[in-house]
Fold this protein.
Amino acid sequence: MILPVYLYGQPVLRKEAEEVPRDYPDLKQLVSNMFETMYHADGVGLAAPQVGLSLRLLVIDGSVLADDFAECKDFKRTMINPEFLERSEEEEAMEEGCLSLPGIHEKVSRSKTIRVRYWDEDWQEHEEFLEGFAARIVQHECEHLTGHVFIDNISAIRRQLNRGKLNSIIKGTARCSYRAKAVGK
Ligand code: NI
């Protein structure tokens, strides 16, 4: 089932997300719905707050980017209660977008490599070292779990330049090709 994507301005995107409990009902169905929602919107990652649920859960499929970023080949993951074990001091700036901020693309500096621990939808524990764009996607999605969005990282001037677009997202008048839930609508 395709879920509406909560857009910038929705309070759920500003909340610290809760740990997913082991007995969370219909977790696999939720994961499946999140993948469907993400694919429908041509995204490569989606965090639970973006579908209105303040939970430490995210889905990723970066495989469409494999031509440009080899590290994204077969990079399809469900991450429950993810936690960074390491983030490199060395950073790299690259352009990002976000399904909760349609039409906005900005360069963001992030760690080049990370080590992350998480559980999958079968509650198997994983520890993974990631680099490049795969590491970037995980950092972007994990940021959603802390009540932040990627434009929080850009300069005040860049944010100012995007003010019109941000206002139209909040008002619900921004162009968006998928089912979305704006504050103003
Ligand atoms: Ni995002």
